[in-house]
Design goal:
Blueprint (H helix, E strand, L loop, with lengths): L6 E2 L2 E2 L7 E7 L4 E2 L9 E13 L2 E12 L5 E12 L12 E8 L2 E2 L4 E4 L3 E2 L11 E13 L4 E11 L2 E6 L10 E6 L10 E10 L1 H5 L4 E4 L4 E3 L2 E10 L6 E5 L2 H11 L7 E6 L21 E2 L10 E18 L5 H6 L2 E12 L7 E9 L17 E6 L6 E13 L8 E9 L2
Parallel strand pairs: 1-7, 4-15, 5-16
Antiparallel strand pairs: 2-3, 3-14, 5-6, 6-13, 7-12, 8-9, 8-13, 10-12, 11-12, 15-20, 16-19, 17-20, 18-19, 21-23, 22-28, 23-26, 23-27, 23-28, 24-25, 24-27
C-alpha cells in the first residue's frame, strides 16, 4: 500500500469528576505530509499548505501539484493514516476525532474505498516532550490515476481537534484551559522524486486566536508574521531533513468568556439593584448588566468614590461565582483617564444549608492588580476580568450581595471610579 499523511489523534470528552478531573480534551499527535513509496517518476512540483487555527481545531488544506514524468499511465492507491494512542489512560477512542476529511483530484471528489486497522507500534515522531509513544494506525484509502506526462492537482482537506486537556475541580467554578497543540510533519514526503519539493508555500492563519487574546508560538520551521498570518515560501524545500511544524497557542480567553456568558444569572432572579450614587449622564446601574463594554456604572460621589456601594438582592439564587470588568473599558484613553478599583469589600447574605430559617453573613476584602488596558469583546474579556467570589461546588442560596469601594487606582484626568460589567454566575 502506498501511504500518505501521518496523523496521530485521540479525541475524548470526559465528564467532571466529583473532586476534579478532565472535562474536555484531545490527545492529538501529528499530521503529516504525503509520501509515495513507489512510482519515482511522479514528481512533487508544488505544495501549498494552509492551516487555520479556529478555536480548539485546526482546519488544514493541502494542495499538491504532481507531474507524471514517466511514459505510461499510473494507477495509485493513496492512503491517509490516522494514528491513535495505544493503551491510552484518557478514555475510549472516539469516532469523530477527524472531521470533514475530503480528497479530490482536480475538481473531482475521490470517494473513500476502504479502511484498514493495524496493530500497535512505536510512532516515528516523538511527542511535544520528546517522549516516544505507542500508536495504532487506521488507514483511509482512495484511488486515482495519472496519465503519462500529465500534471494534476491533488487536494486533501480535513479538520482535527488539537491536543489539549482541560480540567475542572469542585473547588472552583472556573475551568483550567490547557494550551492547544498541533504538529505537522514534512519528512514522510521525502520519497517523492529527490526528496524535495520545488516550491513550498506554508500559511498558518492564527488571526482568530490572536484577535481573541490568545498567544501563538510556532517553531520548527521559520515563518514570517504579518497581522496574525504566518508564511513561508521556499524553493527546493528539503522534505527529508525538515523539522516538523510545531504550533501551540492559548484559547483561554475565548473559552473563559464563553463560560461566563453561558452561566450569567437571568435578570428574573435579580430582585433589585441599588447604587449609592451615580455620575451625571449615561452611567446608570443598568450598565453593570448590559453586556456592553462601551458602557459603565460610574459612582457620583465627590472624590474617588470611597465608601460607595452596589447592593444586589436576589431571589435566593444559588450563586457559583462573581466577577467584574474593572474600570471603563470603552477604549485605552477612557480607561486610563478614569479610576479603577484597587480594593473592595464584599458582604454576602446567604441562607444556611441545614437551616433555611438562618442567614449566614460573610464579609471579605479583595485587592485587584492595576492591569494595563487591552481591547476586549464578547469573545475576549479575560484580560480585564477580576474574580470577586468563587464558591466552587459550595453553593448556597444568596439573598444579598453588597460591594463597597475601599481603594482605587487614580485615573490620569478624572477622579471617578468605574465598573464596566458585573457578572453573577450560576447553574441553570
Amino acid at each position: 500500500m502506498k501511504k500518505l499523511f501521518t496523523l496521530l489523534f485521540l479525541s475524548i470528552i470526559l465528564k467532571t469528576f466529583a473532586n476534579g478531573g478532565p472535562i474536555d480534551g484531545s490527545v492529538f499527535y501529528k499530521t503529516g505530509d504525503i509520501v509515495l513509496m513507489k512510482y519515482a517518476g511522479i514528481k512533487l512540483i508544488k505544495e501549498n499548505l494552509k492551516i487555520k487555527l479556529d478555536g480548539d481545531y485546526s482546519l488544514v488544506t493541502v494542495n499538491y501539484i504532481l507531474e507524471n514524468k514517466s511514459s505510461y499511465k499510473k494507477g495509485i492507491t493513496y492512503g491517509f493514516p490516522v494514528e491513535l494512542l495505544a493503551n491510552s489512560d484518557w478514555g475510549e477512542e472516539e469516532e469523530d476525532f477527524l472531521v470533514d476529511i475530503k480528497f479530490s483530484m482536480n475538481v473531482n471528489v475521490l470517494p473513500l474505498k476502504s479502511q484498514t486497522d493495524l496493530s500497535e507500534f512505536k510512532s516515528e515522531v516523538k511527542d511535544f516532550k520528546e517522549n516516544e509513544v505507542s500508536v495504532k494506525r487506521r488507514w483511509y484509502v482512495v484511488e486515482f490515476s495519472i496519465e503519462k506526462e500529465e500534471t494534476i492537482q491533488l487536494t486533501v482537506s480535513y479538520k482535527v481537534k488539537n491536543s489539549f486537556i482541560d480540567w475542572a475541580t469542585s473547588k472552583s467554578f472556573f475551568e483550567n484551559y490547557d494550551e492547544r497543540k498541533f504538529i505537522y510533519d514534512f519528512t514522510p514526503a521525502h520519497k517523492w522524486g529527490n526528496g524535495s519539493v520545488e516550491s513550498m508555500n506554508i500559511e498558518v492563519d492564527a488571526s482568530k486566536i490572536i484577535a481573541n487574546g490568545g498567544k501563538v508560538n510556532i517553531k520548527g520551521v521559520s515563518l514570517s508574521k504579518n497581522k496574525g498570518i504566518y508564511n513561508l515560501t521556499e524553493n527546493n524545500f528539503d522534505l527529508k531533513n525538515a523539522l516538523p511544524l510545531y504550533i501551540s497557542y492559548e484559547n483561554k480567553s475565548k473559552n473563559f468568556s464563553k463560560r461566563v456568558l453561558k452561566h450569567r444569572i437571568s435578570e428574573k432572579h435579580i430582585k433589585k439593584v441599588k447604587v449609592s450614587s451615580k455620575l451625571r449622564g449615561d452611567y446608570e446601574k443598568e450598565n453593570l448588566f448590559d453586556i456592553n463594554f462601551n458602557t459603565a456604572w460610574v459612582e457620583g460621589k465627590r472624590g474617588p468614590g470611597i465608601g460607595e456601594k452596589i447592593e444586589i438582592e436576589l431571589d435566593n439564587y444559588k450563586v457559583a461565582a462573581i466577577c467584574l470588568i474593572n474600570g471603563y473599558s470603552k477604549n485605552a484613553e477612557v480607561f486610563k483617564k478614569n479610576n479603577r478599583l484597587k480594593k473592595i469589600k464584599v458582604d454576602t447574605e446567604m441562607i444556611d444549608y441545614e437551616d433555611a430559617s438562618k442567614i449566614i453573613k460573610q464579609s471579605k476584602e479583595i485587592i485587584f492588580k492595576d492591569k494595563k488596558f487591552k481591547e476586549i469583546n464578547l469573545n475576549n474579556f479575560y484580560h480585564l476580568n477580576e474574580t470577586v467570589e468563587d464558591y466552587g461546588g459550595f453553593l448556597l442560596k444568596v439573598k444579598k450581595i453588597t460591594i463597597t469601594i475601599l481603594e482605587v487606582y487614580r485615573g490620569t484626568t478624572y477622579n471617578d471610579t468605574c465598573i464596566s460589567e458585573l457578572f453573577l454566575l450560576g447553574y441553570k
